[in-house]
Amino acid sequence: MNEVILEMKNIEKRFSGVHALKSVNFELRKGEVHALMGENGAGKSTLIKVLCGIYPRDGGEVRLFGEPVHFHNIAESQKAGISVIHQELNMMNHLTVAQNIYIGREPRKGICIDDAQMVRDAKALFERIGVNIDPTVPLGTLTVGKQQMVEIAKAVSHECRLLVLDEPTAALTQTEVEELFKIMNDLRDKGIGMIYISHRMDEINRISDRVTVMRDGEYVDTVNTAETTKDDIVKMMVGRVIYGDRKMESTVPADAPVVLQVEDLCSGREVQHVSFSLKKGEILGFAGLMGAGRTEVARAIFGADKKDAGRIFIHGEEVEICHPAQAVKKGVCYLSEDRKQYGLLLDKSVSENSVLASLDDYIHGTWIDDKEIRRAAAEKNAMLRTKTPSMEQALKNLSGGNQQKVIVARWLLRDSDVFIFDEPTRGIDVGAKSEMYELMEKLVAQGKSIIMISSELAEIQRLSDRVIVMCEGRITAELDCADATQEEIMKYATMRETVAVI
Are residues 452 and 480 in the same domain? Predict the structure, then answer.
């Protein structure tokens, strides 16, 4: 059995009003990939921040390579051999790859930076981890996957012996995921221990040796990956079994009225002659590979991007939507795939974010009715079971799943009719996913209509009454839920210039 390189025992962490970590235990062995799992808000990130010295711990013990440690900042933990690759990359796109790797510790020739040596060192580093990247190109010209490889190379250059990967595959293509796993396996063979945080069960089964589960800030259990099942892990994460059967029959009446009609929509090269309808009480799934044009369709309908041609009808009336404010007035709302950039004011409170789209309703003359704002926000967020200490909590302190609920609360307060959910469960855990699914089903039961864009085929199959498949800016198929097998969806997701209605 490999030696234990990290021991965290009875770790405690409190914030004002929140007991974030309650006697948490975790260990990592040399050359092991140890998955750390739990719902958003379970305490995974807090535990890692305690390990790296971002947060001081309030109790417990940490031993690294057999020695007790108490880091006060990232620099100290990095010097001790710990490196963290965050889900949101923190690098400088205008600098070259080599400059990003060695920034602040560049090789020098006298008082000048030795650029040639830095490039040679970077090339040797890439050869060491088996990656083919040109160190001289600007980082911003690389794909997200390649940028991830640069981050790993930077970590290895610090002579890291313990690597933390936080949702590393969230924005990667399948090919890039395979590349990442190859590198991880090479690092494992070299004896580097890795903590792997992910919500993707298939990846956990493939890459990890053990799984530790946390729930509500507490340690639940550690299991050998090969000796446990997906259902066992899910049950540990959420305290209950979550069922997700594929929808085999539409719940929408045949004579349900059409609430949104799109005809021959064009927007740049990404959207070409797209036509479809959305009925009252329907969940219409949009499937396709990355770059298929699904998000661009949503943004053109919502007025976030200019449409070049096409007609849009809402409740049978043709409308001209040139700006998101016009879409909102017509009862159409959009929950962006990048909620942090386009959907949230992270430094503002839960109540402020909740009423953002309906703020005019709470302005009386020259004053804002803050009490009514808090009441309305509290009502909708209670209905959505948003986990927050109060309505005055800054949104940045909430988990991803709860941030998503606040956006939904915003549009419920606006009383929108058409909800466009773009990757509604990206970056949230399996328990929060289940709650989001229940919420969407409740919305359509109330007569709302939903366009759901998702890259997870299981999600498309579970929720959709009909499925629109896109490839390279065009609709290639419209499938009834009963016919929307994964094989059928993928067939049309890679097919050009064909429209099939099944």
Answer: yes
Average pLDDT, consecutive stretches of 10 residues, N- to C-terminus, the chain (502 residues)? 90 85 96 88 88 94 95 92 80 90 90 93 88 91 83 85 87 77 90 89 89 92 93 77 76 94 94 96 91 91 94 96 92 79 78 86 85 89 84 84 83 88 78 82 93 88 95 92 88 68 60
Instruction: Give pLDDT, residue 410.
Output: 87
Contact 228, 243 (CB under 8 A): no
Tokens of 121: 């060192």
CA gap 154, 103 in Å, rounded = 10
* Shared-domain flag, residues 233 and 267: no
Task: For residue 389, list its beta bridge partners.
Answer: none
Proportion of the chain in helix, strand, coil states, percent, rounded to 5: 35, 30, 35
Q: DSSP label at 138?
A: B
Joined together, the tokens standing for residue 345 give 């004011």
pLDDT of residue 500: 59
Q: Which of 238, 267, 288 is the last residue of a domain?
A: 238
Which residue type sits at 397? N
Could you tell me whether strands 4-15 and 59-64 are parallel, antiparallel, or unpaired per DSSP bridges?
antiparallel
Answer yes or no: do 301 and 342 share one domain: yes
Alpha helices in 303-361 (DSSP H): 324-329, 339-342, 350-354
471 is a domain residue: yes
pLDDT of residue 344: 75
* Six token digits for residue 438: 């229940």
Handedness of CA 233, 239, 245, 247 (dihedral sign): negative
Q: How far apart are CA 35 and CA 101, in angstroms?
A: 26
Say what the pLDDT of residue 149 is.
Answer: 84
CATH number assigned to the domain comprising residue 122: 3.40.50.300
Reported pTM: 0.59
Instruction: Please report whether residue 251 resides in a domain.
Output: no
- What DSSP character marks residue 96? B
Q: Provide the domain limits for residue 123.
A: 4-238
Query: Residue 152: inside a domain, yes or no?
Result: yes
Is residue 69 assigned to a domain? Answer: yes
**Pair 100, 189 in one domain:** yes
- Using CA atoms, how far residue 65 sits from 62, 157, 337, in Å, is 10, 19, 40
Residues 6+ apart with CB under 8 A from 41: 216, 387, 398, 399, 401, 402
Amino acid residing at 410 = R
Helices and strands (H and E) in the chain: how many? 17, 25
Split into its structural domains, the chain has a count of: 2
Number of neighbours of residue 268 by Cβ within 10 angstroms: 14
Residue where the block lists tokens 């711990």:
57
Q: Tell me the C-alpha to C-alpha distance, in Å, between residue 165 and each of 89, 194, 346.
A: 11, 7, 24
CA distances in angstroms from 133 to 89, 126, 148, 184, listed in the order given: 17, 7, 11, 17
Q: Please name the residue ranges forming H helices in 219-268.
A: 230-238
DSSP of 360-378: GGGEETTEE-HHHHHHHHH
